[in-house]
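User: Can you write out an input/output pair for a complex, sequences first and structure second?

Assistant: Here is one pair. Inputs:
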Amino acid sequence: MAGHADPGFDTLALHAGASPDPTTGARAVPIHLTTSFVFESSDHAAALFNLERAGHVYSRISNPTNAVFEQRMAALEGGIGAIATASGQAALHLAVATLMGAGSHIVASTALYGGSQNLLHYTMRRFGIETTFVKPGDIGGWRAAVRHNTKLFFGETVGNPGLDVLDIPTVAQIAHEARVPLLVDSTLTTPYLVKPLELGADLVYHSATKFLSGHGTVIGGVLIDGGSFDWEAAGHFPELSQPYEGFHHMVFTEESTVGAFLLRARREGLRDFGACMSPHTAWLILQGIETLSLRMERHMSNTEKVVQFLASHPLVGRVGHPLIESHPSHALANQLLRFGARGAGSVFSFDIRGSRAQGRAFIEALKIFSHLANVGDCRSLVIHPASTTHFRMSDEALAGAGIGPGTIRLSIGLEDADDLIDDLKRALKAAEKAGA
Amino acid sequence: MELTVNGATTYCYTGGKPFDAAKPTVVFIHGVLNDHSVWILQSRYLAHHGFNVLAVDLPGHCRSGGEAPASVEAAADFIGALLDAAGVARAALVGHSWGSLIALEAAARLGERITHLVLVGTAFPMKVSPALIEASLHEPEKALRMVNVFSRSTLAAPPSALGPGTWVFGAGMALGRRVLRSNPAVNVFHRGFVACDSYANGEAAIAAVACPVLFVLGEQDQMTHPKAAQSLIRAAQSAGRRFTVATVPVGHHQMTEAPDATLAALLAFLRQG
């Protein structure tokens, strides 16, 4: 049915939310670097502030360039709208802070990005919000963790660091039985590889810093609402279904049957917490989204070749990608992801059979892979947790965290696959020598 | 606010202001598989600018109980009962799509009680293709997508009902699913389409209307093309009715793809005596 009136994914990635500028004719999305927008009249100003009319007031709350990015992401994810945020972490915080306050509870996957774990395990707890962590594949564990004050389920499409694929339909069903929404971090997969809303999730967010931007240039996030969750029927989200004194006693679920969450998140969350995105950042991320499909195809094909190479190398003990048949999520990846296990992304870890020193030697011998703390760049990236992010931990403690002394995390970029394999081959040789 | 109409709970959005029957009242009537929230921007503005607003969820839709109307005529009778329940002597009626036919028929039946009639995205006859009617019953998700594809005119709507960052197409899909789910007893999608398709009294109704009429038509409307409103316009002309035609440069989502232009047309008309 794709066509002019019902465009497909690639067309939406280029056109959703944007049309030629009506004043200048500019075809590319203009960068609206302005803090504020002139009112037509006092009445217009009052109407904008009171949500009687829609428009831009102040760029912390909304901005035309950001709005293009937001519409585009909502279109690609199958949502009703989106909110651009200062980072992926800001998007997660915005979701949590919109839905709950002190005394609330979250059930989250154990397989999370470290920053998300920190936020939930340490920081939100300080604000009275507790989290129970459950292994993503422990379906009974999700159900058992629900409490009377649970307000949110949360997981990643493919979890950190082992690429455990979240069984979104099943976890969403358990969440809905408990009358809570499922929030999914889809950073590593992007809507090109999986659309969590179509599988039953209610809210999705991304660190747009990664594959959406794709070029390692800016920090940003985005939170998308599927409009599917009935906050009023759930009966325990007064933030959305009761008058809000902080905004004209508005009852958000009355204002919008499907968009109450986004209304409050923007009107309270961006207004008060202020973790907004710069329009320049939105523009750069839009440049990335325009080529998302092309890049993700190349990320996948390069990853497939690198995984095959590593899996057959004698110094490599384990390759943690669902492409490997013995990977615990191999079957689920084939079932849920658009391109099956190929679509489990291009960020994965593998173990060198060797010591911490050998892992360090491997990293230092690489010429094309960049040693840094990021993923989702067009360039290939690498990090050795035992000598960087987790260097203070003993080997025993590392094992407890599922990390070996020789564990290496790769983010496969868009270079020639042969060059990447050549680089890895040379570095593995260096690691072998370091162990001799 | 909630009223009891024909023995059933009926929800009306009042635009964020308390109901005040002393002010001029505007009743907003939604179309098939919609609810009050499609009128948010227009109804909230009017409520804060001197009008009393009742944006209703039709019976059997979302927050309202009761039997979902099976015909335009039944729905028009409900509108009369709604005015009685609210204690409103006279009101303006604003309807979109199916709601425009309901507003038209109600205005014809209620005579002097109706001060203004606004028909947004209207057509007569409002024929629905047999394939779409069939799909609404057996493949509602497919039919919902068809309706939303036909309804949109742009991939770049201006800031809309949820503010900037709204994806109008996605919002339309989500609302349709929610409304359909809200009534487990009746497929209100199919019932609404059948009611549109079978309504035959449009030309007689507009001849019987006692108040001025505003047509708000989407230039790119594929659901109710402006040409399809011509029979009503001609009938109004023949009957000597006062009428105005306003066009907005969008499709069938007039209220969300062109919220300001739709509001401006409404406001100018409603402020006429």
